[in-house]
Amino acid sequence: MSVLSGVTDFFGLDIGTSAIRLVQLRGNGSVKALVKYALIPVDTKLVLSDAKADQQKVAGIIKELVVQSKVTTKNVAVGLPSQRVFSTVVDVDRLSKGELEKTLHYQADTLIPTPIDESKFDWALLGDSPKDSNKVEILLSSVPNDFIESRLDILEGIGLNVIAFEPDTIALARAIVPADATSAQMVVDMGTMATDLVVSIAGGPRLMRSIPTGTDAILKAAVQNLNIDQKQAEQFVYKFGLSKDKLEGQIHNAIIGTVDVLVSEIDRSIKFFNGRYPNTPLDRIIVTGGASSLPEFPLYLANKFSINVEIGNSWRNVSFPADRQNELLAVSNHFGVAAGLAERNE
Asked: pLDDT > 70: what percent of the chain?
């Protein structure tokens, strides 16, 4: 959902539910140099609120982050949270680009959940359909106009120039999935309120979902089932996670029901993907966000699905001085979306 193209100097902005993050990179090609990165924690209720006063507070926090980080440009590519974006992959007849554009706009009302005149609507050609040799696969994304306009208002109101909006999941896949991966890869990014899934083949997202189970739900399960407070729950969950042999497996037992709600949705997504792409095996799950900091969750996924699971690295396409490696890897699981936005080639 580009607004201006040809802009090479910009930063990526991820307005998340627990923090606002930015990344600025420089250079062309597949690897870009890190210029700035920064994060500021934010109250979840504030970010999710549509109230004008709360939006203004969010604008103030973003302004503070931009000033503190000393980014060198006002141009920004902004992430769109999965809960606000509708994305789907559809098969359509092989047509010229112009004809395709017309057909998709004509059919848009049947393809997206919100009226076309109330939505920003974008599409990308992925390639041949896996189901019908006469058709091609199209990735469609739509987002309500009023959400885009409110974001635009708060960002322009603090002097930023929005050059593009992009769904978080697309940015995430760009940063985390190896560009040369020929097999299918799934990214599992656990946030505060939801977990984003994206499966991509050769850099193109083929399945995107937001599952309304995140770290918040897991911590709530620990609070309720162990009768402890939020702070203790955070300490226990992030220290022992799904380990069965620590604290006699009490933490595992307290949270496993909630974790399994999420895992069953991951299972459904894998089955859906395998049904549509029987000739493209899913050979890796890459975890980031809370999914990589919850002890033994990656191992649990690996055992459940008999698949390779690895911890994502948001900086895999970013160059930086060697002496910053430990500092950057320590925060990698927070920066997938912001880094992916900054890696866009306009």
From this structure: 98
* Residue reference for tokens 């160059």: 319
Selection from 196, 199, 205, 183 nearest residue 283 by Cα: 183
Query: For all residues of the chain together, what is the average pLDDT?
Result: 93
Please choose, from the candidates 125, 138, 269, 123, the residue with its C-alpha nearest in 3D space to the C-alpha of residue 198: 269
Q: Say yes or no to pLDDT of 346 above 80.
A: no
**Burial, 269: exposed, middle or buried (Cβ in 10 Å; 0-12, 13-18, 19+)?**
buried
CB 111 within 8 A of CB 140: yes
What are the structural domains of the chain? 1-84+145-177+316-346 (3.30.420.40), 179-315 (3.30.420.40)
Q: Per DSSP, what are the bridge partners of residue 86?
A: 142
pLDDT, one tens digit per residue, over 72-100 is 999 999 999 998 999 999 999 999 989 99
Segment 238-251, tens digit of pLDDT = 999 999 988 889 99
* Residues in contact with 7: Cβ distance below 8 Å, sequence separation at least 6, in sequence order: 75, 163, 346
Cα distance between residue 7 and residue 36, in whole Å? 18
